[in-house]
Structures
1.
Amino acid sequence: MSKIAVITGSSGGIGSALVQLYLQDDYFVVGLDRCPSGNTDLHNFTELSPNLREFAKNESYRKKILNQIKILLPDKIQKFVLINNAAEQIIKTVVDIDWQDWENSLAVNTVAPFFLTQGLLEILIASRGHVINISSIHSKLTKAQFSCYAASKSALESLTRSLAIELSPKGVSVNAIAPAAISTEMLKHGFVNAPHKLRELESYHPSGIIGSPEQLASFVKSITDQKGGFLTGSVLEFNGGIAGKLHDPD
């Protein structure tokens, strides 16, 4: 296989959709998830289960995981895509947040994507590859109890721009995508006792719907299919129009 995709958070709703879409395009996919799916039936798919918090702060552990990834890859790679999709979402009030919450959020959402990019940089440069960082609408428009998550996603977008400045001259495209609500099982589970609230959430979006993992995966894929390297350093919104809508009282 000469087309490779490394996808973090590969067992979740968005991650699974990404895995399926890249497999359909004949990529060999390496999934990274602390809770692996255990799916051994997928051809050209393999999983590793690193702890991204440990990966971010422990250099020897980081080298071990990077070596495990590289061992799986062929000598000649035509196309290489890194998708930093894994996320730590801590929802706590200002009073309850402690240092560990900050460390976990920044480690998984910001620092691990940096070190994965750094550790796979030689391959990215040789293949003129793509890095996609999955950010969030919370980087700019957030709500109560999301301090750690919102700040870490804002930092991820800043990192995206900085990496693009350094890596684009080397042929590597680095972009971020900031989705609003996506209909994952995790999201739907939060409304299991109040389905009317889920319908209300849909109605907030001018699109009248919330996004699906498959729609988001298709958008990500369209970015990594881009050729020429001009699309880089961008934060692309995927939000059903909600980012432009006020919610003032009628």
2.
Amino acid sequence: MGSVVGSIAGSDAVGAGHALLVVVGASGGVGASSLATAVAVRASRAGTEVVLLDGCPLGGGLDVILGAEQESGVRWPDLYRLVGSADGRALLVRLPSVDGVRVLSFGRDGSEPAAEVADAVIAGLVAECAVVVVDASVAGGTVAVAALAVADRVLVVAGDGMSQLAALSVVSGLLAAGSGRVGVEMAVCLRGPSASAGPVARVVETELRWPVLCALEDDRGLVADLVHGVAPGSRASGPTVRTADEILGWVLLDRRGAA
């Protein structure tokens, strides 16, 4: 893929006014990857140019969740020779795409790019896209670290059980300690029945001092969609769609001049 790497090198553009959302699962099984994908799909349906970045090298590939695993295009392992800055526009046209959502996914071997490659690629894509959504691993990794360093919004997805809230406490503490930048906003999306969302949200906000942006109920339609290769967020309605739209509004609030 040397010719591809050569053709995407060299951009020094700055992504003023563009938004970078990082979605982090506080623990396994909370559906952070599906929710990140749904936000990207909803952004595309709203006419916003969006790119979805895989930040979980051991996740098996975010292109699978989007339904783009059979699409040809550049993945993270193809970019290991990149040196210097990256031309986001040249890269975008080479990424696999489904329904207007372009995805830069990991492969199936667990390898990840060098830190400088992750930095350059994220900077190049943020410069070109109105919205960049990153599915970041709680375990870290070069892509997750690079994205969190420049994120506008960080959303932690957590379950409403005791062990899951304990995990949220650890993860939120680490994220808050590692982000001293002005302008980054952090919030929580709770997973669980709507009946428990209120009481649990109060615990999160009073004890952990993190704002709860939204709650996501179980979505049977999402499970069926994933089995059939349909991207999360593609339905006209449902819990995942409603929550993804709420998150997208939060991400775009300042970008559209809303009060």
3.
Amino acid sequence: MTRVNPVRRLRSVRAGPDPGSEPADVLARVGTGDSTAFDQFYDLTIALTYGIVVKVMRDPAMAEEVVQEVYVEIWRLAPRYDPAKGSARSWAATIAHRRAVDRVRSEEARRVREEKVERQSIAPYDTVAEEVSDRLERGRVTRALDTLSESQREAVTLAYFGGHTYREVAALLELPEGTVKTRIRDGLIKLRDAFGVTP
């Protein structure tokens, strides 16, 4: 796939794609191997995916690389898309967020490995204990997020892991702000219950 500057593509689609093109229908065609539909789906979702990735990564150059990976994954996974589990745009947003988070974690792990090699010493007990504790806590958070509905998890992830405001989440998901606030509130209540926190 040729490398395309997402910012340039963003400018080119400001006028918007063909209004008769529903993302789910376009994605269904992508799933059959239709490369024209893939280009159309790219135009329909690039503003959303690039916005999510750059927000997570804070590095536009690296974000462009990750966006390319996102669309390779969308092309590969399109046949598995199930509209019953969420909109095509939210599906693409989830892939973008996961890819960005994976890259951030990968870069952090690489940095940590390099620092360890430089020090060439055994980490003190407290550091090891802290790392184990962090991993256990991340596991608890992941399991707690799995208890949410797809719509709640999507809204909570964009707000708290993506760093978006209610208004930005509403715009990204193309939903009313009230709906987004309700999903986030209900999701947080479920998370609180999953962690056993009393109000």
4.
Amino acid sequence: MKSRGWKVFLLAGIVGWTIPAGSAERCTEGSEKQGYWWGCDPPPPDEEQPLGPPPGEEVLRKMFPKNVEELLHDYRENALRHATEETVLWYYQLQDFARRRAVEFANLTQVVLLKHPELNMQTQYPVNPPGMAARSRQRSVSIESRLAAERGRAALVFLSRATCPYCEGQRAMLRHFRDRHGWQVLEIDLDRQPDMVARFGTDFTPTTLVIFRGTDQWMPVAVGVESLPRIEESVYRALRLLLGETSPGQFSLQEYQQGTVLDPKRSGGLGQ
């Protein structure tokens, strides 16, 4: 009985709170107390009015691009909602204006990049077949010549474990690297030489590092299994970074790319 009494009391409290006595009297026109909890239906939402014709071209050209984008969105919604020939026509008239402005910008871009080759990516990163073939040859010559120049004072260190499932794959890639470039590759089993974990700051295997003999200069060049081209490029980049020829922000640059449009440290024309 006690449990039932508490339930009745609780139910009465909820009913008394959700539907207060005399709520209908407080549901008056202009009052903020509108809606179900005050005993009346909420007022209907205002009917959205259709948009009129879009602004003329002279006005549109003076608008910020982001405002034109907002206008396009509004007229698209207007056309979808009211679905008349007129509203659809207005939307596509705005689309036509935006498209013509985009074409104008693209044409201006072509002229500017032809007049200012220091801004043109095509000068350093061509995307047509003849240019891509030339870029690939230039990259290969740059990497191979640097690896040949440094093989007498640099070497690769390969961190491995007998239980490492990926070490054999990386070991095979490093054999190819050694045979192709004449570099020394030293393998260290971290289980047998655990002090090397502290020396090189990692216990992950396989890890490949480049070191300069007789110095404390070293840097990781591969984590996990990497292809031969990736190892070659990583060693090339690490050598240049360790020798102070590049900064971390220029890590991907080839020697012939420094000072070009691809160099983030190159001074541009702004403020000059």
